[in-house]
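Protocol step 6 of 9: fold each sequence in the batch and record its structure tokens directly after the sequence line. For illustration, a two-sequence batch is reproduced in full.

Sequence one:
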Amino acid sequence: MRIGINGSDKLVQPNLDEILNDIEESEAAGFDSYWLAQGGLLDAVAALGLAGARTSTIELGTAVVPTWSRHPHTLAGQALTAQAATGGRLILGIGLAHKVSVEDGLRMKWERPIRHMLDYLDVLQPLLTDGAVDHDGEVWSFNGGGPRPTDDPPKVMLAALGEQMLKIAGRRCDGTILWCVGPATLEQQIVPIISEAAGEAGRPAPSVVCSLPVWVTDDPKPAKEFVGAVLKDYAVLPSYRAMLDIEGVHGVEDISLIGSEAEVREGLDRIAAAGATDFTGVVMGGNRDERERTRSTMAAANA
């Protein structure tokens, strides 16, 4: 299992220089990948494209760009530009987001999410691979194309938790990017469904990217309480609640990797054994020493 960094915690108070420095440091430490969510008003695709000039080997992924707010033609152009800037190291992760954010934030109606995603891929993927598409869909449409800055399309991965979305990810994409998913859910739900769908479609084995908070500490109780409080909303969002129920836990704090170096390593081993191909940790800590211990533990596990 490859190990990377999920730097989305830096979006709370986004500083572009700090994010780019963190990506550089992550590459120097030997991590395989670095991921950013699309949150707030910092553009994740643009930031990763900028990181291309300051790095050379680390994979750079979005986890994830919500589809509702960007036409697939727009996102195709952004992704191809970042792919060119990174020398072919971009992984474009996309996802539906949630009904509450779509309806309350974007003031758009949440409807036909599966049709929405199928149409999105029907426009996005041909533009990435061929530079042109003619698709008249129910939700998304586009007819046209143009010259691309690179003929090397980025991998496309899908945030998928439920059965229908996992099957789409397996049949159409390079894998899935996960949040709020522990080893039991990986083994019972995620890996079997996406792998079977990919096999039936004659596609390569899909990547399964698991992401969770990681916190090396000698005092895990307050750390778990903090994670539970900060991430409490995930325990009630329907799609994540369903995954936590499979895991048999209350909230994200119960599946986060929190504890000693040995306990974190054991948690990583369980995730790998459950079928994850990649793990990306959100590095946490109550002080600088704990954050450094956390990153060092992850880096040692990756080595």
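Sequence two, same batch, same settings:
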Amino acid sequence: MKKILVVDDMVVSLLMTENILSSEYEVVTASSGEEAIEVYNKEHPDMVLSDLRMPKMTGYELQLTLQEKYHERIPFMFMTADQAEEVESQGFDNGAMDFIRKPFRADVLLRRVGNILKIVDRIRGLKKNASIDSLTGLLNKTSAEEELARVCKTFQGALLMIDLDSFKLVNDIHGHSMGDKILISFADIIKDALRPGDVIGRMGGDEFIAFCKDMQDAHGIQGKSEFINENLVKVAKELMGEDMNIPLGASIGCAFAPKHGTDFAELYKKADKALYTVKQNGKHGYSVYEEESVEEESPQAANISHIEMILGERNQKEGPLSLSFEGFRAVYRYLVRTLPIYEKPACILLLTLTRYGNTEIARAEAEDKFEELLKKSLRRGDVITKNGANFIVMLSNIDGEYVDTVSDRIQTKWESMKESRAYLYSYEWAILGNLDEEPHI
């Protein structure tokens, strides 16, 4: 049921208006502008029906005060016994949606109030469609920033920047359709972690933002961080399988209002600095902005156990270590340096899929299937990456016969798959550190 705030300093008029409207609406009342502000703060009605001429604070002044406080246009309708045309004109100039003169008929008042509420619903519906992120149902970047600029000035609470860690790997390994499912689930988890009155938005990609009203302590942020991270892993395994080994998690940077400021741009920068601290300390956690901590260029690990936690691989599974090309290159350079010292043989293997014949099987689909095959065919000590259309593998503790055995195993499995009818598999390899030799084909 819609809620209407009726404001009138004349008791008889106030009771009469309340009696008429209460047949169709929930009605709250105030007998002065000052009291109306308190009632509005508590009840947040759908519209205000106010007498124009009141002592101390007029209806005009009440309207301007509320709109300045809440930084939004509040639906107002004025009542007055004044017959002067300039009074009505001034009311519309100030943003009133309608004007009714006393004494009024009950049916006329109900019809005019109903028309205003229909218009308000239509406007709110249009605004909502334009302000919502179509994928997650959260506020989009522009609307989130506008709303947060308002609430940071109005409420005390915590501004949270929330990043979805390692999300790119979901798209790279499982495709963008799965990526969308993870983003939708992540948004739902954030909504479950926060309260209905809190503000949540998607800033773009895997970046989210929220404002938790009345949240003023780090312990509460810790609880939300743990909830989001635990449930994200559960949902990811439900969607991608129990063998999912992508290190998904949430990193959260926090700044408090008004402790760290009330300007959204200022709080955003401070929350971003706190988020950077989390990223530098292993991700999947939270950090609250502190002047001392953000001045340090590189946060230090507390002890050897902490540094092992930062460096360690989460959700360690069977199969090869899958890295970005930059990560693969770092491992390659390290092995080239150390292999002559420890005399442990290793080789680099280049795998290529070549398309032949006419086919409806897309290259991206074939490459995804081939990558899955590789991960099931290689050992934990091996390392794999993708560079353009090629797959590159480092095999450790090997000899030439082992390389051929692995390649034959991949060939056999590939030939059993429908994608092999459209893409031919070939490979060449060389001993690590001896790339001047002719490659083995």
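Proceed to step 7 once all outputs are recorded. Observation for sequence two: The mean pLDDT is 85.
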